[in-house]
Amino acid sequence: MMRSSSSTIYSSFSLFALHLLFVLSLFLLFPWISASENQFKLDGKVLELDDSNFDAAISNFDYMFVDFYAPWCGHCKRLAPELDKAAPILAGLEKPIIVAKVDADKYRKLASKHDIDGYPTLKIFMHGVSTEYYGPRKSDLLIRYLTKFVAPDVAILSSDSAIKDFIDSAGTNFPIFIGFGLNESMIANLGVKYKKKAWFSVAKDFSEDIMSLYDFDKVPALAAIHPVYNEQSIFYGPFEEKFIEDFIKQSLLPLILPISEDSLKSLKDDQRKVVLTIMDDEADEKSKGLLKVLKSAASANRDLVFGFVGVKQWEDFAESFEVYRKTPLPKMVVWDGDEEYYTVVGSESMDETDMGTQVSRFLEGYREGSVVQKRITGPTFMGFIRSQIGTIALLVIFTLLVVVLIFTMAREEPLTVGTREQAAEDSHSTSQPDLTKED
């Protein structure tokens, strides 16, 4: 009896000792936990990070948006107040995104570790893994853009109102894909793969009104919607991953893309040739009629990207394709997105009569190989070469350019016309920000 009682007392003491040890462990560990949590003051302001706390911040927060800046950089100075406005809203999301900044000019070792060689460079860190950010920089647009990164890869929509709310919240910066009556598993992998470029969802329940609104008459159907262009297209299958992915890739851009400094970025990863139509003014009535014709042609030729630009809207870009004051417009070329383009023999320009036939002949000539290959030029460069005083003028200009280059080496330059590849390459220049590093 005594032995049993002693055994019970010993067991109770051992259990008590274990509890005590556990409590003491927590007590000893608590200061370290508290120190880790309190290392960053989360008050809705932009965190200032450096060599001593950067890695800790990345480890502590699932989502961080980091601005690698230089104090002397003009673009950085303009960006700072936009980040200040966005920071408290992003920090208040259900899945918070912490906004931080690093003086990359001062902490160069840290900047080098993260491949920073241009200012500002913006990166999103998701669970410690970074991806470079090329989106808008105004606070309201930046908030919408970043919210996407913490959204589900594929949203599940169960009613008409859920569909409407999803589209409203998605905004206009990305195309939207909605699978009507489609199994989530069919686009789950693609939702992950193209999450940075589009919104993905499947609608489980919807009315005939929705079918009429999005112009499909049977299910399953996959709708691609471009809110900013008021454009949509429908895919009815086959619903195998390869065919779905082809439709998604072709639908990431609108049927006809207005060429601008911003839209060139979206062409960067698209391998298709660009059927480029150069017109005098893309906003006049004549151009609007031509755009309708081009949209029909684009719908039937999805292996090509159809783009357009007005000389009035972007003269320097148009001149890169030998378009000058006396050039008959509209003019169509096929551009590789880099340094080369093709004119079609017999279709160097268009007139106002039967533009549909002329566009069809242009495409037929291109596909048959009846083309002349050329290289893009700098603005008015060929005009100088052809003129009688071209050589002298060129030498003078070259000398002036050298002087200007020396004078502006350490200063920021305005945006210049670039090719699809330049949009990627120039992003690593501190003296001349590229198309992807400007608002």
Outline the structure in words:
The protein is of the alpha/beta class and 439 residues long. It has four domains: 1-33; 47-148, Glutaredoxin, CATH 3.40.30.10; 152-251, Glutaredoxin (3-Layer(aba) Sandwich), CATH 3.40.30; 255-439, Glutaredoxin, CATH 3.40.30.10. The protein has 16 helices and 16 strands. It has helices at 2-38, 54-60, 74-91, 108-113, 139-147, 160-170, 184-193, 208-213, 241-251, 263-267, 285-300, 315-319, 355-368, 381-386, 390-407, 422-425, and strands spanning 47-49, 63-69, 98-103, 121-126, 129-132, 155-157, 176-180, 199-203, 221-226, 231-235, 256-258, 274-279, 305-310, 331-335, 340-344, 371-375. The strands form three sheets. The protein has a six-stranded mixed beta sheet with strand order 11-13-12-14-15-16. Strands 1-3-2-4-5 form a five-stranded mixed beta sheet. It is globular, with a radius of gyration of 29 Å. The relative contact order is 0.07. The model is unreliable at 1-13, 20-38, 379-394, 410-418 and 421-439 (pLDDT under 50).
